[in-house]
Amino acid sequence: MKEKKLKYIVLQGLVYCSALLTVAALVWILYYVIEKGIGRIDFQFIFGDAKEGGIWPMIVTTFWSIFASLSLATPIGIMAAIYMVEYAKPGRVVKLIRFATESLAGIPSIIYGLFGMIFFVTKLGLKFSILSGALTLTIMVLPTVIRTTEEALKAVPRSFREASLGLGATKIRTIVRIVLPSAIPGILTAVILGMGRIVGETAAVYLTAGTVPKAPESIMDSGRTLSVHLYMLAKEGLSFEDAYATATILILLVACMNLLAKMGVQRLKKG
Prior knowledge:
The chain is mainly alpha-helical. Helix content is 79%, strand content 0%. It has eleven helices and no strands. It has helices spanning 2-37, 43-47, 56-87, 92-106, 109-123, 130-154, 158-166, 171-200, 203-206, 226-236, 240-270. Helix 6 packs across helix 8 and helix 10 runs antiparallel to helix 11.
């Protein structure tokens, strides 16, 4: 009995230590980056032009990339997940779709970048543009959106569907009016995860959207995202202080977007 209790205490201690180490690693990274970059951040750095050492064009390009990519990936991912959960019957087709989704999730980002550069930039003639980058990023985040949305749809009680169908509603009406509203918190989680992948991606964007340090005026213009700008600052050794400051802004940007999205999820759950 004492031996079992000792094993339980040891395992519990390992669990707590693992959790503590995870949090400590995050805090240490955040502190290290922010402490080195916060001194460089001022109004001119955030809203200034690239020629003056500012990052405003890169912030604009990042938001363009997020909006364009999620506008494409979200509806496609949700509809694919609906098919998998509500319509598809277990068999070869479902296995093929799952295999394709898992394979897409495991492909290195540089491969996506090469594909996007060859197909979207060169073959389709879209050139280095926000659209080329967004199409490439859409393919990259689809697995995340599909799998997370799929789990959210599965979490909706079957009794909800049966009650709606029993009252005479069609299947599509049940999905639109009952299932999707109940799964919205999980779907928003999928969007948050996809957004994080888009913001942090470098290789695929570098090879498709380009590196022009200028705010794009349309989706067909080239641009440089914050992550690409950070990479170029660090790679070329132009200014490590600016690199740390850019990383700090990137961290704060992702944190703010995640916080706003999670607040929206909590409000939907309460509603």
